[in-house]
Amino acid sequence: MSNIPKPHPSASLYVGDLSPNVTEGMLFELFSQIGPLASIRVCRDTLTRRSLGYAYVNFHSVVDAERALDTLNNYAIKGKPCRIMWSQRDPSIRKSGIGNIFIKNLDPTIGHKELYDTFSAFGNILSCKVAMDENGNSKGFAFVHFENAESADKAIDLVNERLLGTKKVFVGKFQAKKERKKQKDSSWTNVYIKDIDPSVTENDLRQAFQFYGNITSAVIMRKGDASLGFGFVNFERHENAQAAVENLHQSEINGKKIWCGRAQKKAERQSELQQKFKQLKIEQFNKYQGINLYIKNLEDEIDEERLKKEFSVYGQIRSAKIMQDETGNSKGFGFICYTNAEEAQNAINDMNSRILSGCNKPLYVALHEPKDIRRQKLAQRNGGMRKIRNTNVPVATPVYQVPPGYYSSTSAPFTVLPQPMTQPRNAPRTAWTASQMPPQQYQVQSPGQYMTGRPSRGGRQQTSAGRAGNRSGRRSNQPGVPTDATLIPQ
């Protein structure tokens, strides 16, 4: 499997790590110096149209694409070095992990270029990336994807545990996140203990845990001489650490119950807590879906007792809450929870837009929705309104434009505004006589016809579509004419 040949690269390049304000025009100016381009596309969010930080550059020739990869890789665009690699349309090549290595404990001064120059001596590189934070600083680890497994094995043998810059680096085969998590769950040896009594010492901790296996270290964290109430015990084997956690969790040391668990890094704990909180929110939403109401436009005179009284006529209320600020003043909105969905729907039907006695503003009553769902609906609505605004062009002056997000070497972005065919405002109006005035019988014309404001020779107005038909035969659905029906006198 390791000898699977990689497909020959096409003339398409992936350009990553782009600044959000990089456009197709900027990339065209840069890459067109290498050779003729077929197209350039910056990938954007479908709703916000913001750049996703990567683009695809397509050349006509593979030779030009190779030259661009060699000369422009790690070139600074808008002050940020770009990362160029061959565009791999087949995702199995990326997901297989063959030839992919992981490097950690990197010197902060090592970037994409230095890493590429170091590992290119072992074989052809498909992708090379140093992980960066939001400020552009190195996180201390990187990934290099070689064309074949032999080059990756050679790099691991020769660079692992060697100095790279000022630090000794670790180089090993890349493992997917699921595999790393599975391996970590079955190999940890460090135990975290909290709620430790201040009188407990390291020797007391060793005596409590040594029954379950050999201990390599035991420490209680202190600030000066005072205990901080937590510590760590590290075992030689994973089975010993797991047995200690299972048996000593919620046990007592010096008359105080302790908490035991696997020692985790801060980022790992935060990720786990976020997942638990997200799952709890989903469970709460499913539990109260269809029975929890959101009410806004509540005036200051309305308290929770008044709110419960007004809504209790529709069913049994489980809870009623008006949100308040730090000073105890109402924020103008609250929540009502019923026992079943039918009661909640009756309350919405009757109380929405109702003005309570002694109040001036009508209530807004609807089913409660989580913040994520509200944001998603708002983004979709704003995206739809943006599309409407972009296409809301005056009927007499339609706009023809190259699709957004696409740039071609043969046609730069352009906008064509046809001349309006209506009569100029300052032009003299046509004089009508009584004999020329036809009976005012109105008729709906078919789409594609509109008035020009000028009478024909026979005294009747003639539509532009009619004159066009007289000149060039049968023509319909011309660009630049309204598509809605228009009333004209006959």
What does this structure look like?
The chain is built from 13 helices and 26 strands. With 490 residues, it is of the alpha+beta class. The termini are far apart. Strands 2-3-1-6 form a 4-stranded antiparallel β-sheet, covered by helices on one side. It has a 4-stranded antiparallel β-sheet with strand order 8-9-7-12, with helices on one face. The protein has a 4-stranded antiparallel β-sheet with strand order 14-15-13-18, covered by helices on one side.
Key features?
single chain; 490 residues; alpha+beta; four-stranded antiparallel β-sheet; 13 helices; 29% helix; disordered C terminus
Please describe the topology of this protein.
Layout: E1 12-16, H1 24-31, E2 37-44, E3 51-59, H2 62-72, E4 76-77, E5 80-81, E6 83-86, H3 91-95, E7 100-104, H4 112-119, E8 125-132, E9 138-146, H5 149-159, E10 163-164, E11 167-168, E12 170-173, H6 177-185, E13 190-194, H7 202-209, E14 215-223, E15 226-235, H8 238-248, E16 252-253, E17 256-257, E18 259-262, H9 266-288, E19 292-296, H10 304-311, E20 317-324, E21 330-338, H11 341-351, E22 364-367, H12 371-391, E23 400-401, E24 415-416, E25 442-444, H13 464-472, E26 487-489
In brief, what are we looking at here?
With 490 residues, the chain is an alpha+beta fold. The protein has helices at residues 24-31, 62-72, 91-95, 112-119, 149-159, 177-185, 202-209, 238-248, 266-288, 304-311, 341-351, 371-391, 464-472, and strands spanning 12-16, 37-44, 51-59, 76-77, 80-81, 83-86, 100-104, 125-132, 138-146, 163-164, 167-168, 170-173, 190-194, 215-223, 226-235, 252-253, 256-257, 259-262, 292-296, 317-324, 330-338, 364-367, 400-401, 415-416, 442-444, 487-489.
